[in-house]
Every structure is written in structure tokens, then in C-alpha cells.
Amino acid sequence: MASLLVPRARKSPDKAPRRSPALPAAPAPVGETRLPVPVDLPATLGCDAVGVPARYGFRILSRLPAKGCVYADADWWWWLVPAGSDLDLTWPLPVCYAPGAVVPDRRPRLIHHPDGGSPYSPPIPLYLLTCQLTGIAPAWSVPSQVRSAL
Predict the structure, then answer these.
(1) How many whole angstroms separate alpha carbon 30 and alpha carbon 28?
(2) Residue 54 CB contacts under 8 Å (≥ 6 apart), including other chains
(3) Helix (H, G, I), strand (E, B) or coil at 45
């Protein structure tokens, strides 16, 4: 059986040994922050947030029929929605659902203040838009049948 020959680098006595280039430093861990609701807007339904990569931000903002508070950083845009807006919904990837509106702390700032008196974007139109933009069919669970005692 023939053995495999693996070429080896020649060692030169007059040259220093080769070293691999230094690896870039790992990014600092990102903490978390809660998106603040403006004081003039009552958040009586609690707050969660729906995040999308920034490349989808302007398209969603321009197509939503009603817009609540929208926050953005360099990489993500976040919409405030009522708490529990993930119930019976499967948000498509790469969308990120953040309960309690707790998001990675990349210094998101408010970029859209709603004209009305609610901080929320309507979750169903937002969900359908994210599905359309990501090319994923909407999917939600069917609630169990409720039987009447009558």
C-alpha cells in the first residue's frame, strides 16, 4: 500500500518561524435594554417588540397602515406591539420577537413617534408584512374548539 506524502515547509535557519496573524479581538458582549415608551403614550396593554434586520426597516415602515413607536440602531429596527402578540403566531426568521421589549443594547433610538395616542403598531399587519418580505407563508395555530354547554 502506497503511503501518502504530505509536503512540509522547509525550515530555514536564518528566518524566524512563521506565525499566524493575530486574530481580531472578539466583539464585546452586548447587554440588554428595555425600549422606553414615551411618557405621553399609555402602554396599558404591556409592551413587547418585534425586530427586523435594518434592510427591511424602511419597507415595513412605509407599508404599515398604522405605525406605533419604532426604534432603530445600525443593525435592527424594532416596533412596539401589545404584550402577547406572539401568541398563536410563528414569526418568520430573521424576525426577532422580544417579550417585555427587552432588546440587545446597541443604543436603539426612537425614530418614529406615532401621531395617535397609542405606542403600538398593529401586530397582524406587521406579521403579514414580515412574512411577505421574508418569503415565508403566514402560519398560526388554530385555537382548540370551544364546546358550548347549551
Answers:
(1) 6
(2) 72, 74, 75, 76, 77
(3) coil
Q: What residue type is assigned to position 14 of the chain?
A: D
Q: Name which of 6-10, 23-27, 139-143 the model is least confident about.
A: 6-10
Would you state the cell numbers that stand for residue 24, as one nine-digit string? 481580531
Q: What percent of the chain has pLDDT over 90?
A: 66
CA quadruple 45, 53, 86, 35: dihedral sign: negative
pTM of the entire predicted model: 0.75
Rounded CA separation 54/60 (Å): 10
Q: Which three cell numbers stand for residue 48?
A: 413587547
DSSP classification of residue 55: H
Q: Residue 9: what pLDDT?
A: 47
